[in-house]
Amino acid sequence: MDNFNKLLQVNSVLIVCGILFRGICSLVNLNSVNKPVYYSDTEREKTWVASTEESVTVVGVISYFKDTTTNANLSVFLVGKGFGSSDSSKLISTWLLQEHGEMDVFENMVEASTVQASAFVHRYHHDFRYTFKNNGYIYLLFSHTASTRHSRKITFIARLSKNDHHYYSYTELQLNCTINTEQQENTFNKVQAAYLAKPGKVLAQNIVPSNLNDKVLFGVFSADEEDGRSALCMYPLSSINARFEEVIESCYTGEVLEDDKPKTVYSPYNSKNEAICRTKRDKNMVKAYICGAEFLPSPLASKPEYALAVKLIYTGNDMLTAVAVAVENEHTVAFLGTSGADVLKVHLDPNHTDFYNRIPGQRTGGAVNKNLLFDTGLDHLYITTGRKISKVPVQVCGPKNDCRSCLIQQDPYCGWCVREGRCTRKKNCNKGEGENVWLWGPDQACKILEPINFQACIAVDQTPPNGMSTPLWTINR
């Protein structure tokens, strides 16, 4: 039986989780994946991390767990996993990445039953797509069905404190990617992939609220209809956190409706919702208890009317399946994988977002997988499909042999290097930071080099300076 990879993560070693033996994981040497660092198939249920089913999605992020008994800082692996027919009912779990006392590698660290699917198997078909950590919190992005009566998926981002050993701080916030935010529509309801990045200055200055240091969650979403519609939306992380605090504070301070039901939230894995927010507490409890507490209501999820809704920034004819974002010369470029195995390059210009290039893929390889990755120098992109990994450069400037053809493509990576007479990246152009040395964009006209007529401009001394016998050059429009 093939061991279908469910999860690959890089720590000091490579973490590999497959479908064999109920989804166990192993540690392998980064320099030679044939050399296992740790592998055991005898620990049974306590090391079943992933899933036996290929269709069940799994995401994971490396974090740390402080043992309150020994004060040791332990390396752990937090996992979000959909529910398979033979899987544990836990939707999120924390696994040890080192031996500690009597505990083995990949042993479950948290026995909390806060976030489980068991009682709601037919209601919650979680499809996990992305996870990341930032500023003391861990975030998981997924979609699931809204109710037993509806098959339509709704997208949520969940947040919990990385120091929360019981998942008391676990809260879900609905994300809407739509054409019209004023009508509270949710046009593109199912997240396919996401990427966290700090945008370039040109885009960041036009995000509301504007914060040049704020990270942004870029996500590609699809519609339920079978027409292949999809879109790219972006959510500033500061806006996500502000909405989290708004709905949590509302519950902690006892804001309820006339029927005593919570105003902004509900309990997603508990059928008893009426009484969870009736106790009035100080609003500072949100910041005082960032890890939550046993006496505070949890888990929580925002009601649809408190979803964070944004207007799409790009849509096209391709079904989008993956996204990665890079910054070049303060411009933001999105690389969008498609169901047809291609990758689209889109310039996220605040005035006019524009698709400008397509990296072709092999149609036999299937759709681009949700994880697009850059190399450490941000010079190449790794594209994965069902059975293939491709490494491609982020730009192909070289074939453009003249200034006009170089600039007309409006690729933030490619400009005309005047001194060298070639189309190239700014960092590869000699003295490219100088004025009119590296040309780019619709506002810059091509410039040509013309010789100076010394007979016309030198009146006293007819000899070129320093005894030069060849004409100097100057730049004219």
TrEMBL record:
Keyword entries, A-Z: Disulfide bond, Glycoprotein, Membrane
A Gene Ontology term for the protein's cellular component: membrane
Record SUPFAM superfamilies: Plexin repeat, Sema domain
Sema domain span: 1-394
GO biological process: axon guidance
Any GO molecular function: semaphorin receptor activity
Compartmental location: Membrane
Name of the protein: Si:ch211-127b11.1
Gene it is expressed from: plxnb2a.2
